[in-house]
Design goal:
434 Repressor (Amino-terminal Domain), four-stranded antiparallel β-sheet, 62% helix, disordered N terminus
């Protein structure tokens, strides 16, 4: 007996049926239809179908749905406690399923949200990177522009500093030449005065030594002097040719003719023009030849061989 009892105890217990299944099986066993149950209980057929298919909402199970099930059980002669107990187990299982479903949905939602957040952060990182690159490029361009501006200023200053001593030396040379010419003129005038004085003294001595002279020899002397008067050598015609200058940039110049006369000197501004004439050849000095165009005797003067920043010294023709 004990062996049989143990064997029966070890047999697997069949899973308990749900409340709706119990009611459906009992109805079919009695040969009743859902329409008959609906008419007897004054309920809709859809509600009877919902009960038999165990489609219960948690709030309905807790309230009036239990009354419907109890009435259904009484009508088909089933124990109310058995049916309500099955309903309770069904509700717990359904609640657990709902919790699992909610947890699964929550997990999927969190995973989806994490992907969205990851994508959002990726887009934000790309935007920050592009903005940083744009800012860095602008900084580099500003730095390069400032460096080029400083370089150009330094080059202009260096050219001015290199030209200033040159111009100063040219002015000194010009002043020395003018002083030398003035001294030569003064020396020449002094020698001429001394020579005239000597000639006058000699003439007085001759007059004192020979006070009595006939008129006829005097006439002969005057004739001889007239005859022996030095012939004037015809001076060659000096060539005079026009020199014109057009300035497209500021430039220091100095122009002298063959006599040493300074026709023009100083800094000329962009847009100015000069028309000079004197005794050729001309000696021309240009501090910035790239900013000057010249014509001599209506013919253009080629200045392309003079590089920027170099002083040009030209003799025309």
């Amino acid at each position: 007996m004990n062996t049989e009892h143990d064997t029966q105890a070890q047999e697997p217990i069949a899973p308990a049926l749900e409340a709706g299944t119990l009611l459906k099986n009992q109805r079919e066993a009695l040969g009743l239809t859902q329409k008959q149950i609906s008419d007897r209980l004054k309920l809709r057929i859809s509600l009877i179908q919902q009960i038999e298919e165990n489609q219960f909402e948690s709030d309905q199970v807790a309230t009036f749905m239990r009354g419907y099930i109890r009435s259904y059980a009484k009508y088909v002669n089933l124990d109310e406690k058995v049916v309500l107990n099955a309903l309770r187990h069904s509700g717990d299982a359904q609640h657990e399923d709902q919790e699992m479903l909610s947890f699964s949905r929550k997990t999927k939602t969190e995973k989806h949200n994490s992907r969205i957040m990851l994508l959002t952060w990726g887009i934000f990182a790309v935007i920050v990177g592009i903005s940083s690159l744009w800012w860095w490029q602008n900084q580099q361009q500003d730095t390069l522009s400032q460096s080029l501006a400083n370089t150009e200023s330094s080059e202009e200053l260096a050219v001015e500093e290199s030209l200033d001593p040159e111009f100063a030396s040219l002015e000194v040379i010009e002043a020395e030449q003018n002083d030398a010419a003035a001294s030569v003129i003064e020396d020449t005038e002094g020698l001429a005065a001394i020579s005239d004085a000597a000639d006058t003294s000699a003439a007085l001595d001759v007059t004192d030594e020979q006070p009595a002279v006939d008129a006829e020899p005097a006439v002969e002397l005057e004739t001889a002097e007239a005859t022996t008067a030095p012939e004037t050598t015809p001076t060659p015609e000096v060539a005079t040719k026009a020199l014109t200058m057009q300035f497209t940039a500021d430039c220091w110049i100095q122009v002298k003719d063959a006599t040493g006369k300074t026709l023009s000197t100083g800094i000329k501004k962009a847009g100015q023009s000069l028309n000079l004439s004197g005794t050729a050849p001309y000696k021309v000095i240009l501090g910035a030849p790239e900013g000057v165009s010249m014509t001599f005797a209506s013919e253009p003067v080629d200045l392309s061989g003079y590089t920027s920043g170099k002083v040009a010294r030209i003799t025309l023709p």
